[in-house]
Amino acid sequence: MPSLNVAAYIRECIESVVNQSLKEIEIICVDAGSTDGTLEILQEYAKKDERVRIINFPVKSYGFQMNLGIDTAQGDYIGIVETDDFVEPDMFELLLKAAEESGADVTKCDYYKYKSKPFPYNIPANNLKLLDKNVCFRIRRQPALMSRHPSIWCGLYKKSFLTKKEIRFVESPGASFQDNAFIMKCEMAADNIYLIGNYLYHYRTDNEGSSVKNKSKIYCICDEVNSAVEYLNSKCEYKEECADIVYAQCARACFRNYNRLDNEGRELFAKRMSEYFTGVLGGHLLGNKHLYRTEINNAKMVIRNYHDFYEKNRVECEENNQLDDYIKLFKEYFDNRDKLNHETGKEAKMVNQMVEAIKNMPFRFIQDLRRLSFYDDEIQEIFETTLSHAIDQSAQEKKSSKGFVKRMIACINDNGLKYTVARIGEQLRIVLWEG
Fold this sequence. Notes:
With 435 residues, this protein is of the alpha/beta class. It has two domains: 2-210, Spore Coat Polysaccharide Biosynthesis Protein SpsA, Chain A, CATH 3.90.550.10; 322-434, no CATH class. It has helices at residues 7-18, 38-48, 62-72, 91-102, 144-147, 159-164, 179-189, 220-234, 239-260, 263-278, 293-304, 306-312, 322-340, 346-359, 363-373, 377-396, 402-412, 421-434, and strands at 2-3, 27-31, 52-56, 77-79, 86-87, 106-115, 121-124, 136-137, 155-158, 193-204. Strands 4, 5, 6, 7, 8, 9 and 10 form a seven-stranded mixed β-sheet that branches. A three-stranded parallel β-sheet has the order 1-2-3, with helices on both faces. The longest helix has 22 residues, at 239-260. The N and C termini lie far apart (55 Å).
């Protein structure tokens, strides 16, 4: 459990770990010199629970903290809990059971995306969706696993495997996406990987101090992909069968890093990507069967003229709070719907607000809202009705933007929606034909 100034979250995190149904665990807390009370909270738990061990080492590097913790651990398996997150009570019991029964080097579960504002809620990440569960495999059998979120904290890793295969974290300064190289090394080196479908981890996405929010770390991902490629070429036993998988993921990691940056950072990183794609990854991208056509086209554009790529992918840099705003509005409507029925015009106004919000919403937000609505049939019905109104209005307005069509097609392809494909398809036909 690596920590640095997470006093706001550490108590909820460590409570979820000390109260695991699996009692025979050691809990190694590696603090990097917290000054906000985090260390004192950890010491409080160490006094009450002999399983809690604190290592206070002032090197501010997530990779260094993780390597120190792994070196210190005495158990047969290594688990990771980031200290602004929390876990289900039976997480490590279920992972250990699966790992021991399967003999896997790496065992993983799925997770929830968690937010505490505007009110606490979880959205299933579906990170392992469409992947085979409860079978052992090497990465060549399910290469799509490497393209998913690294989610290293959803895993249980055989310590002897990490030692034998010489798998280490990159010890770059701060918390700088060190999960990328680690998980690529694990997945390319593992003789057996095993997945279970349970959602056991709560990954906090609204911690503004998180490394993924830090737009000043423009080039940190380069250390990660360089480390992964170096490991592939010098230590990976299965290099021939997984080289293209690794190179494809290195390119994706670069594009994902690009997408999180503001315009100034994007322009700088686009130039670095051009150099990287023609250098380290040169010859491994354009014919790579593990990249989608769009990804290959983007790689071609970066190589040919990175400035054209940047101009095509400029973004408005204002913070996008559409999802939070919609969920807040959605909850307000759901909590007060009986009262609203008796207030003339207020219900219609709120429904119209939700409709307008969803009409302009990126389709990934629509997917998240759909997953959230599955928790309750009544919420599901309200969401689908709102989405249906948005489709009707857009059809009447002859709105034919590619973005809107893409969002609606995504909904058609999503079997989770209860209303008929035919109805959405008819409205889309009107939009496309008349628009």
